[in-house]
Design a protein that fits this description.
alpha/beta; Rossmann fold; Helicase, Ruva Protein, domain 3; Zinc Finger, Delta Prime, domain 3; 5-stranded parallel beta sheet; 5 strands; binds adenosine-5'-triphosphate; binds magnesium ion; binds zinc ion
Length: 430
């Protein structure tokens, strides 16, 4: 039977949880010391292991292979199997997003007084708990403050700021983090190997970057990519990953920057058009551009700072070359310009705004053959200019000169500039 990777690879014991070492250590110690809290709060970004860890905790508490809570649940007993299959009589999982009403919670609370059936604890895992109604929290508060000895609550949430402070302060709180890029890469490489997925390291890195530390997302992407690669002869190409994930490859971002520097507006509008046709949202493109320009700024100010970005080695060395054609203040104004358009990216005409911004990012070409007389309004402007060119001359000498210079083709200004310039050349020679 086909099982999606993110379900097949759900961690079953604490040591299989990736990138949450602080949580794994604390929970392991607590179990070794038999210090079980009546209520836990697992907070953090989506797909980082909250529900998985809650289930592992439930297994650890109820595994029938030992008398006491264990860090090594067997995975084989009725209780462990029941928890994996979500059918354990002692473990209740509630999705608060779809059951937020107080009636459900009252019912749940009324069952806390009964002893567990096969395990040592009755465990309530409340997922998306931030969705519970105020009344529901009120109803829960008393039970959490004074719970029966055999009851453990595990509240999971991606939005801990919406959980009432009175509840947070009564729970043991664990903060799940986004998993670090290196850890995601290592993990995906292991999964790909054991699944015989033919994928290059570059493509794995692309997946890891695109999923931004959400491990579930990264496994889903790997899954999708492996389904695309039915030929299995060539390894999965990173370009597919960019397409699947809706992000933008770094070499295209480099091209955008190069085009800005070269003033190739048309090229950039073409790239933007392609992205939009591939279904990339202007708001995403905008965010990616800003982030890339920030990386360029890091590169310009701190050429050893690659580790401060998530860029590929190749991209970084190209950025170093590119950054030589741009001053820090130019990069900063490009970022400022983009940021000032952020709100417009939610607009219906976002694509248009983004095109306009890409055009504006190109610095105006220098005006060719600028002549000094372009801004002169009258004779005294011409004389002031001459005084700047030849500071050793007095006002009177300049006035005399002016009288002597004959117009060329009826125009005096070009003749004046020619005369002053040749005088200047003579002064230099002397
Ligand atoms: N820290 C992790 N270690 C190993 N696998 C993980 C981890 N986090 C997520 N996963 C993978 O992602 C899947 C989903 O994880 P889980 O349900 O625990 O995330 P969650 O934090 O509860 O997310 P959500 O907030 O969306 O409910 C797991 O089955 C597993 O394959
Ligand atoms: Mg969850
Ligand atoms: Zn067991």
């Amino acid at each position: 039977m086909y099982q999606p990777l993110h379900l097949k690879y759900r961690p079953q014991i604490l040591s299989e949880v990736i990138g949450q070492q602080h949580i794994v250590d604390t929970l392991t110690n607590a179990q070794a010391l038999h210090k079980i809290a009546p209520a836990y709060l697992f907070a953090g970004p989506k797909g980082t292991g909250k529900t998985s860890t809650a289930r592992i905790l439930a297994k650890s508490l109820n595994c029938q292979s030992t008398q006491e809570p264990t860090t090594q649940p067997c995975g084989e007993c009725n209780s462990c199997k029941g928890i994996t299959a979500s059918s354990s009589l002692d473990v209740t999982e509630l999705d608060a997003a779809s059951n937020s009403g107080v009636e459900t919670i009252r019912e749940l609370i009324s069952t806390t007084q009964f002893a567990p059936v096969e395990g040592k604890f009755k465990i309530f895992i409340i997922d998306e708990c931030h969705a519970l109604s105020n009344q529901s929290w009120q109803a829960l508060l008393k039970t959490i403050e004074n719970p029966p000895r055999h009851v453990v609550f595990v509240f999971c949430t991606t939005e801990v700021n919406k959980v009432p402070e009175t509840i947070v302060s009564r729970c043991q709180k664990f903060d799940f983090r986004r998993v670090k890029l290196d850890e995601v890469i290592n993990y995906l490489a292991i999964v790909a190997k054991s699944e015989n997925i033919n994928i290059s390291l570059v493509a794995i890195k692309a997946i890891a970057k695109a999923s931004k530390g959400h491990l579930r997302d990264s496994l889903k992407l790997l899954d999708q990519a492996s389904l695309l690669n039915t030929e299995e002869i060539d390894p999965i190409d990173p370009n597919w990953i960019w397409e699947l994930s809706g992000t933008i490859p770094e070499y295209e971002l480099l091209t955008i920057i190069e085009n800005i520097i070269r003033g190739e507006i048309k090229g950039n509008l073409g790239i933007l058009q392609d992205w939009v046709e591939l279904g990339k949202q202007p708001i995403t493109i905008h965010a990616i551009l800003v982030s890339f320009l920030k990386d360029l700024l890091v590169c310009k100010t701190y050429p050893d700072g690659k580790h401060l970005t998530q860029l590929e080695e190749d991209t970084w060395s190209e950025l170093i070359t590119i950054s030589q054609s741009w001053s820090i203040s130019q990069i900063q104004s490009a970022i400022t310009l983009l940021m000032s358009r952020q709100n417009m990216m939610r607009d219906e005409a976002a694509h248009l705004w983004l095109s306009a911004t890409l055009i504006e990012l190109v610095p105006p070409a220098p005006v060719e053959n600028t002549q000094p007389w372009q801004n002169w309004k009258n004779q005294s402007c011409a004389q002031i200019w001459a005084a700047e060119q030849l500071p050793h001359l007095t006002q009177n000498e300049i006035s005399d000169l002016w009288e002597k210079v004959a117009p060329i083709n009826g125009k005096k200004a070009p003749a004046w500039v020619k005369a002053i310039n040749s005088l200047k050349a003579e002064v230099k020679k002397a």
